[in-house]
Structure prediction request, 390 residues.
Amino acid sequence: MGVNPKYLFLTDEVYIYSLSIAPDGSIKQVASINAQQFNSGGCGGPANLFLDRTGTTLYDVDFNQNCSGDDDAFQFFSVDASTGELSYLGVTAATWSYWEPLSFIGNNKYAYGSECSEYSDIYGFQRNDDGTLSVLNINPPVPTAPKGYSYCPNQMVADSANHIAMALTPENGYKSSQYTPPPQLATYIADSAGNITTKSTRFNMPKTAIPTITDIAMSPSGKLLAVAGLNGLQVFHFNGSKPLTHYTGLLTKDQIDQVYWDNDNHLYAISQPSGKLFVYTVTPASVSQAPGSPHKIAQPQNIVVLSK
Amino acid sequence: MPRHVKFLRRLVVALCTSAVFALAAFAQTDSAIQNFNSSSAVAYVYVASGNQNIKALLQLPTGSSLRFPDRLSELASLRAWE
Prediction:
């Protein structure tokens, strides 16, 4: 799902549906587009919807773009603000790496993503005036991992300035071990050309209590970072270009699959296996679970939040 | 992450997104329905669930519980309009 102030977007891996959002929050379908028709091989389709910061361009991961089973691309669609209709703008080249939604920094000009598979990768795009994406020729540094390991960048998210938080998971080939060091959190900064650099090292990056991270989310203030994973949820202080610092322990031990902030200090977290929606009120000084949380929701798969 | 894990991840996502395919009318079975005033909401929360629903929720200011209004979503099944 994706959302802007007027529309909610959904996909079934063939179509992308536009639903209008009324002032009272009610939703109604207003348009649809067959996005699969733009999949060059006809084998894949749209997944993982996301928007730029202004909500004027909708992007998706066009999976299995070349019918090779592992090549994905990003498609782009302009959003008609008055009707919610989508118009196809184009697609990036396909690679193994493009799977996670991109995160736009504050200038809305540059967006970044990462991949942690047998090919780990950090990549970036320039968003052009028409909403299309052009790949950035960047080669971001990755801190030196503990001896015998390398860091795999499996999640990243930007703040509203030019900083990026990134989860770096130590990996040792295909071997996994209970002794594997925990993921750590790095901070990067983007310059005016879109290059990103970091002063994070394995010595100044906080370690998470979550061995397998599923999602991370930056608070709108840019001061807090939520980290979700198979064994719970944590919040860290995000300090811009300075190293992140510890804040909370595990807020829950349930598996958390996706996290989302609103503009009123609420942190939402869904757990698919336990069928729960957690809501916390989190500021840099206090953390509490909202009344009624966790809420039972059968098979929650995806969440978006529209702040009023 | 080994290749087979990535394929598994994609399969899970595919199953999840497929579950969103047919969206039925909003079901009220998961939580008690409460009266509310949407003008006091600070956020609208939409949760796609595997039982072919979108839950539309209202978050009220800090200190209040998340509300499950009864008529935020009046979706019939989504349909292609092309």
In short: The radius of gyration of chain B is 16 Å.
